[in-house]
Amino acid sequence: MRLRITTPLTVIVDEDIDSLRGEDASGSFGILSGHAPFLTALEISIVSWRVDGNEHFCALRGGVMTVGDKSTINIATREAVTGDDLAILDSDVLARFRVDADVERTEHVEAMRLQFNAIRHMVSRLEASANAGEFR
Fold first, then answer.
1. In angstroms, rounded to a whole number, what is the distance separating the alpha carbons of residues 58 and 81?
2. What is the pTM of this model?
3. How much is the pLDDT for 2?
4. DSSP β-ladder status, 54-67 and 72-76
């Protein structure tokens, strides 16, 4: 099988592998050679894969994974960090990814709140103008 992990800026991993473990909203799953075509949205998590009995890891900031007809596994993610120390990836990198995602959610909510307030203000001004007879 061929594994390819990409971010918008670079290719993180591009190698032949024996198996892969990942995690989506439904839980953990495994991919072996000959797997049926597959598409899933990945959580902020760590994927692991084996090459000749050696395990490798990559922390992902979510993403989309596809398994193609020829057992090609493509993972597209916003950010990825590879490493051999699972504990560091889990404690440091995933924690940072989660904090970044929380900050982005908060910023998104604040931006939406500002937009809704601006719309409400415009609607109230239009209603006041219509009631004053400016629009007929």
1. 5
2. 0.70
3. 95
4. antiparallel
